[in-house]
Amino acid sequence: MIRRTLLSFWLTAALAFFLALASTASHAADIEIAEARLEYTDEGYRLAAAFNFELNHSLEGAIARGIPLYFTTEVAIRRPRWYWLDERAASATQTIRISYNVLTRQYRAAINGSNLQQSFDSIEDAMSLVRRPGRWVVAPPDVLKPGEVYTVALRMELDIAQLPKPFQVHSINSSDWRLSSDWRYFTFKADGK
């Protein structure tokens, strides 16, 4: 009797897990990549990107209660090869944290890994930094070979791994906390000096 109950429990848990995985995989992208291109500068190759999306009521409410949200942008640059797997030339990530300070009644946007932190009066102004981030270096100038064609992959997502633990658990069961784009691919011909 106990074995049958345990077996039934594990089968139900496994089924629930696979259904959650399937619903995540079939989830449509909530973030649209409106613009994506690489530009060469003396410091390196910079990503110019723009994203279109809106925060739902759950996420706006979380920020208003003082829970920071983390938006991570990932970039991977690969050189196609006909004889083997594509060569990974460079990759980079940038995370922007959006938070609300109840005492000052201001929203803050901070880019991880830098000292840049700005205060805003409204959530829309703070989210403009996420939707149109500054051009940031994704590859040093000597990494990409001039004249070579590279494939660039780009995506953005709400990084639930950086949320406080109770919200990480809650986000697994709630579609309100799943915000991401599909991977967008484009080609780029390196023209460095």
Can you walk me through this structure?
By secondary structure, the chain is an alpha+beta fold. The chain has one domain (32-189). The N and C termini lie far apart (74 Å). The strands form two sheets. The protein has a six-stranded antiparallel sheet. A three-stranded antiparallel sheet has the order 1-2-7, with no helix packed on it. A hairpin with a 5-residue loop joins strand 5 and strand 6 (117-120). The chain has four helices and nine strands; from the N terminus they run H-E-E-H-E-E-E-E-H-E-E-H-E. The protein has helices at 2-25, 57-64, 123-131, 165-173; strands at 32-41, 44-52, 69-79, 87-101, 106-111, 117-120, 136-139, 149-158, 184-189. The model is unreliable at 9-19 and 21-28 (pLDDT under 50).
